[in-house]
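S1.2 Input.
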Amino acid sequence: MKQPKSVEALEKLGRTRLSKSFFLRDFLYSEIAQIYGRQNIPDNPDLAIEVGTRLCEDLLEPLQAKFGRIAIRSAYRSCEVNRIGNERNHNCASNEANVAGHIWDRTEENGNKGATACVVVTSFVDYYENTRDWQALAWWIHDQLPYSDLTFFPKLAAFNISWHESPARTIYSYVSPKGCLTKPGMTNHAGDHSEFYSGKPLFD
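S1.3 Output.
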């Protein structure tokens, strides 16, 4: 599929259903694109659809089935939009670091594919704001879903969640306690972590 060059073609692309609840259009909005007047449209729609489908079916749908509505904060970025976000200090990693991440329609040098979205679990917001306990959700995802990377942020307990065909299985946070929660090789990585979320609101 070619990159759309007309309103009609972009509308058709946006109607592409990635999973039961999500369409590609849900992931194309970008504040950076809006403010700087850039298009946030995949150069390679087929690859964006492929990895977006995996992100939605394997990660976002199970999250939504468990906790209710998932709000998309930031997801697909074109190379140009991501570059501007990086150069102007809008919390975007470099294009090299974001391929197979927020840049869905580019593969890594080794050919690996991936996709990232920053999301908010809306039912979790009140619990988080009362407790600042982001780890309950992090450990639940770790135990239940085939994610690659999770990165948690202070506002609304928003977090990046990544699907990747070679998952890294790492969790990082900018919320206290900051830093790496777990990664392969750490003593807390394997096994059951239900002690961190069992019995808490939303998790039973």
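S1.4 Remarks. The mean pLDDT is 97.
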